[in-house]
TrEMBL record:
Family: Belongs to the polysaccharide synthase family.
Protein origin, superkingdom: Bacteria
Organism: Roseovarius marisflavi
Transmembrane segments: 32-54, 74-100, 106-127, 139-161, 167-188, 287-314, 320-342, 354-373, 379-400, 412-430
Protein name stated in the entry: Membrane protein involved in the export of O-antigen and teichoic acid
Length: 442
C-alpha cells in the first residue's frame, strides 16, 4: 500500500503537469489553426487508436500479472510479439487511408493516415522495461520520461503550426513524440535490453491471456471512441472540432481516473485480493472512496465552471464548447463511480469476464449514441453518454461480485453525491445548456 500511495502521488503529479502542458498547447494551437483541423485530427486519432486497440493482445497486462513477468525469456517473447504487431499496424493504417477518406469525404486523410501510422511502428519497439516498471509500481523515471516526451511533442506541434498552418503540424509532432519516447525508454529505464526471442510456453501464455484482451480492447475502443466515430459522420468538421475542444476540457477527471486504475489496480488487486480477507476488502474500500471522491471533486469543478472556462480560454468560434464541457462532465459521473471494479478480473487472470463487461458497455454506448442523435441531436448524444453506463451497471455488479469486490455502500453513496453535482452544474449553467439544446433542435 505504501508503494501504491507513492505511485498514486507520482501519477497524479504527472497527470496534473501533463494536463497543464496539454491545455497550454491546446490554447496556442486553437489560435494558430482552425476548428476544422481539430475535427480532421480527431478522425486520424480515432483510427490510430482503433488500430492499436483492435490488435491489442494484452502484452502489458500479461507482464503486469504473470508469475513469469520478470523472466527474460517471457519478456523477450512479449517484445517480439509487440514488434511484429507494430509493423502490421502501420501497414493496416496505409490500407485504411483510402476507405476512411471516402467515408468522411476528406481526401486529405489519404495522406495523413499513412504518416500518422508510423507512430504505431515506432512504439512497437518500446522496451518491456516500461511494463516491468508498471508491474512493480516504480513510476519515477517513467513519469520523468513521459513529461519530457510531452514537452518535445508540444514544442514540435507549436513550431510546426507556426510554419505549416495546417493539420500536418499535429500529425508530424505525434511522430516526433513517439521517436523521443522510444529513445528515452531505451536509454534511461533500468533493466536488461530486449532481443528477438520466441519461447513457445511464453508465447502460449501470452496468447491464452491475450485472446480475451484482444476482444476486450476492440470493445473498449468502441465504447470510448464511439462518440467520435459517430459524431464525426453526423456533424460538420467545424462543429465536430468545437465538440472535441469541449470534450478535451471535460475529460480531465476521466483521463486521470483511467490512468490511476490502469497503473495501480492490477498490482493492488494481485497483492490484496478483496475476497481473501475482510482486511483486504476494507483497504480497497478506503482506496475506492478516496479515488472516487477525488474524481467527483474534479468533475464538479469542470461541470460548474465549464462555460466560464471555455469563454476565457477560447475565442467566439468555440462558444458552444462551454455547454459541451458541462454536459460531458456530468454524463461521465456514472462511469467514474464504477471505474475501480473492472481491473479486478484482470488481476485474477480472468480476462474473459473483463471482455464480457467491455462488450456490453460498447453495445449499449453505440446504441445509446445513435438513438440520442436521432432523438435530440448533439444534446441527445451527450445525454446518452451517461445513460449508457446506467444500463451497463448490472454487468459491472456481476463482474465485481464474481471477484468479491463489489461495494454497494460505495456505489450508492457516490451516486447520490454525483447526482447532486450534476443537478447543481446544470442549474448554474442553465442558459448555456438551453442554448445548446435549442441548437440541437430541441
Amino acid at each position: 500500500m505504501a508503494r501504491a500511495m507513492r505511485s498514486s502521488a507520482l501519477t497524479v503529479a504527472s497527470f496534473g503537469s501533463s494536463q497543464v502542458l496539454r491545455l497550454a498547447s491546446n490554447l496556442i494551437l486553437a489560435r494558430l489553426l482552425f476548428p476544422e483541423a481539430f475535427g480532421i485530427m480527431a478522425i486520424v486519432s480515432v483510427i490510430i487508436q482503433g488500430l492499436m486497440q483492435f490488435s491489442d493482445v494484452g502484452v502489458s497486462p500479461a507482464i503486469m500479472q504473470s508469475k513469469r513477468g520478470d523472466d527474460p525469456d517471457f519478456l523477450n517473447t512479449a517484445w517480439t510479439i509487440q514488434m511484429i504487431r507494430g509493423v502490421g499496424l502501420w501497414l493496416a493504417a496505409c490500407a485504411l487511408a483510402w476507405p476512411v477518406a471516402q467515408i468522411y469525404d476528406a481526401p486529405l486523410l489519404m495522406q495523413l493516415l499513412p504518416v500518422a501510422g508510423l507512430s504505431l511502428l515506432i512504439t512497437g519497439f518500446n522496451p518491456t522495461r516500461l511494463d516491468s516498471a508498471k508491474r512493480h509500481l516504480r513510476f519515477g523515471r517513467v513519469t520523468a520520461i513521459d513529461f519530457a516526451v510531452q514537452i518535445a511533442g508540444i514544442l514540435a506541434a507549436v513550431g510546426l503550426a507556426l510554419w505549416l498552418q495546417s493539420v500536418w503540424a499535429l500529425v508530424i509532432s505525434g511522430l516526433i513524440s513517439a521517436l523521443v519516447g522510444l529513445v528515452l525508454y531505451w536509454v534511461f529505464l533500468p533493466g536488461p535490453g530486449n532481443r528477438v526471442r520466441w519461447e513457445k510456453p511464453a508465447a502460449q501464455e501470452l496468447v491464452n491471456f491475450g485472446k480475451w484482451i484482444f476482444l476486450s480492447t476492440i470493445c473498449g475502443f468502441l465504447f470510448n471512441q464511439a462518440d467520435k466515430i459517430i459524431l464525426g459522420k453526423y456533424l460538420s468538421f467545424s462543429v465536430f472540432g468545437v465538440y472535441n475542444i469541449g470534450f478535451f476540457l471535460a475529460s480531465f477527471p476521466m483521463l486521470l481516473g483511467n490512468m490511476l486504475t490502469w497503473r495501480l489496480l492490477i498490482p493492488i488487486y494481485r497483492e490484496l485480493p478483496p475476497g481473501e480477507s475482510p482486511e483486504n476488502f476494507a483497504k480497497l474500500r478506503r482506496m475506492r472512496f478516496a479515488v472516487t471522491l477525488a474524481l467527483l471533486a474534479l468533475v464538479a469543478i469542470f461541470a460548474l465552471l465549464g462555460v466560464w472556462l471555455a469563454g476565457v480560454m477560447y475565442d467566439d468560434r468555440y462558444e458552444m464548447a462551454g455547454a459541451v464541457v458541462v454536459m460531458m462532465a456530468v454524463m461521465q459521473i456514472p462511469q467514474i463511480v464504477v471505474m475501480t471494479y473492472d481491473q479486478a478480473s484482470l488481476a485474477a487472470g480472468d480476462s474473459r469476464r473483463f471482455f464480457i463487461l467491455t462488450l456490453v458497455k460498447a453495445v449499449v454506448m453505440i446504441a445509446a449514441l445513435i438513438l440520442g442523435l436521432e432523438w435530440g441531436g448533439l444534446m441527445g448524444a451527450l445525454i446518452s453518454y451517461g445513460v449508457a453506463m446506467l444500463f451497463a451497471y448490472p454487468v459491472v455488479v456481476w463482474l465485481a461480485r464474481r471477484m468479491r469486490a463489489w461495494d454497494p455502500l460505495h456505489d450508492a453513496s457516490m451516486a447520490l453525491v454525483g447526482l447532486g453535482v450534476g443537478a447543481l452544474a446544470v442549474w448554474v449553467n442553465l442558459d448555456a445548456v438551453g442554448n445548446l439544446a435549442r441548437a440541437s433542435g430541441w
